[in-house]
Specification:
The chain is mainly β. Helix content is 0%, strand content 37%. It is globular. The N and C termini lie far apart (23 Å).
């Protein structure tokens, strides 16, 4: 499996906490994940550049690694 890097080039691992760096619209809903939202206990799904996690508003969220930074 390839290393997953955040926007600053730091390696992300399963269980890390990340912070969203940009307001992101969630496809299929009218929900927006605001900049600064923390996502705890991330999972790496094996796809290059993708991270899975949960927020209070959205369960089973998949984020691109270029829109997050390690907390």
């Amino acid at each position: 499996m390839d290393e997953v890097l955040d926007c600053n080039g730091k390696v992300l691992k399963a269980g890390d906490t990340i912070v969203v760096i940009k307001d992101l619209k969630v496809r299929g809903t009218s929900t927006v994940i605001k900049r600064g939202t923390k996502v705890k206990s991330i999972r790496l799904n094996g796809n290059s550049g993708e991270i899975e996690g949960k927020t209070p508003k959205v369960k089973n969220l998949v984020l691109r690694s270029e829109f997050v930074k390690k907390a």
